[in-house]
């Protein structure tokens, strides 16, 4: 299969959680540009709220290069599994798609995502004596800092008010980014 002499964006498959490392190393290759959009978000854990940074597309990032010149260097770059192809045919990602992703990321490489809660969400308490119990958000107060949750406890339903930082929502950061 003849390789193109035109620079284009391609999807690069990497080892898990190594996207940003591979993309960073690829910047050192002559004639290769990489783009690895990532998101930063807080998640409740047993230790409290913790910040996480993950690739927007886990195990994938984008690289722009001329295949006839750089395909070997890209394929054999550290943490790279393969350049995504279909039937041994490299498929370029249109520049317009990369531009749309950059716009969605507000021009940032790492975009901070806030996973909010809304009325009707099922949540789990992460702190206090009722840790692990689930309930449904009944109302959100004072700028999303406090939340009233309807919980079934000891055979009856009760409204409990807690700090928003003490609950874990079932929403994912990618859902929050897409506005669902």
UniProtKB/TrEMBL annotation:
Annotated GO biological process: DNA-templated transcription elongation; transcription antitermination
Q: Which residues form the signal peptide?
A: none
Annotated keywords: Transcription, Transcription antitermination, Transcription regulation
InterPro entries assigned:
NGN-like_dom, NGN_dom_sf, NusG-like, Translation_prot_SH3-like_sf
Q: Which CDD domains match?
A: KOW_NusG
Q: Which Gene3D superfamilies match?
A: NusG, N-terminal domain (3.30.70.940)
GO cellular component terms, alphabetically, are: cytosol
User: SUPFAM superfamilies annotated for this entry?
Assistant: N-utilization substance G protein NusG, N-terminal domain (SSF82679), Translation proteins SH3-like domain (SSF50104)
Describe the location of the NusG-like N-terminal domain by residue ranges: 8-102
* Pfam families linked: NusG
Q: Does the keyword Ribosomal protein apply?
A: no
PANTHER family recorded:
RHO-INTERACTING TRANSCRIPTION TERMINATION FACTOR NUSG (PTHR30265), TRANSCRIPTION ANTITERMINATION PROTEIN RFAH (PTHR30265:SF7)
State what protein this is by name.
Transcription termination/antitermination protein NusG
Q: What is the lineage of its organism?
A: Bacteria, Pseudomonadati, Verrucomicrobiota, Verrucomicrobiia, Verrucomicrobiales
